[in-house]
Write a structure and sequence with these properties.
The chain is 54% helix and 13% strand. The chain has 13 helices and 7 strands. Helix 8 crosses helix 9 (181-191). The two termini are 28 Å apart.
Length: 250
């Protein structure tokens, strides 16, 4: 998948978030004093990628052993917080050698229940000697205040069109695809600023092009508007009672 193939591996490769990256670089100059971090901002702006870049820079060859990744929207109960994170912090305390702390990356943390966040706050306090936490969320308001006060907050902004278009163009050149700039701009419009969605959309459209060239005509059949039109026709037929034709549209 292109979203993984072209995911930034270092902070230098991150698209657009210059102020945030500079602030993080300053913190990483003294890793031992790095606080817990809270990344907030719209989807597809690079929050998870930046967290992984930090993990690779800090842990190096120990990345797999000393980094715990959790998705809070799937594993958001208080049991997961207590068992997996607390268990991980205890393992780090007994096994880490030459590394000062382990790293817990908790994606979509604003989806956690309030009870789970309260438990997480206590674990962040007790495990701070052996673990650092990077919490990732779309909405900062979904994180309880006691956790926010224990983190350095970095806000990710919507990507500029020029930077995002340049990134998509770079992918096209790497994949030897000739893309009309209008197509790339249209893909960004359809993705509503979510670069991850834009890259997925680009891969789908590119996979359907046998000529290796992307123009607006290649994009038409994948546009959500076209799907909406089909859906509207299907519903209209069903309301009229013509279920055979409605099923054909499905």
């Amino acid at each position: 998948m292109w979203i993984e193939k072209y995911r930034p591996r270092t902070l230098d490769e991150v698209v657009n978030q210059k102020d945030t990256v500079e602030g993080l670089r300053a913190l990483l100059k003294a890793p031992s004093t790095m606080p817990h971090l809270l990344f907030a901002g719209p989807p597809g702006t690079g929050k998870s990628s930046v967290a992984l870049c930090i993990a690779r820079q800090l842990m190096g060859d120990n990345f797999r052993r000393l980094v715990l990744e959790l998705n809070a929207s799937d594993e958001r109960g208080i049991g997961v917080v207590r068992e997996r994170i607390k268990g991980f912090s205890q393992i780090i305390q007994t096994t880490a050698s030459g590394v000062q702390f382990g790293l817990v990356i908790l994606d979509e943390s604003d989806e956690m229940t309030k009870d789970a966040q309260t438990a997480l706050r206590r674990i962040m306090e007790t495990a701070s000697r052996t673990c650092r936490f990077i919490l990732i969320c779309n909405y900062q308001s979904g994180i309880i205040e006691p956790i926010q006060s224990r983190c350095s907050v970095f806000r990710f902004r919507q990507l500029e069109e020029t930077d995002a278009t340049s990134y998509l163009d770079r992918i096209c050149k790497s994949e030897k695809i000739e893309a009309d700039p209008k197509v790339l701009r249209r893909i960004l419009e359809l993705s509503e600023g979510d670069l991850r969605r834009a890259v997925n959309y680009l891969q789908v459209v590119a996979s359907s092009s046998k000529s290796g060239r992307l123009d607006l005509s290649a994009l038409e059949k994948f546009q959500p508007e076209a799907q909406s039109g089909l859906l509207r026709n299907m519903l209209t037929l069903a309301i009229k009672g013509d279920f055979i034709k409605a099923r054909h549209h499905v």
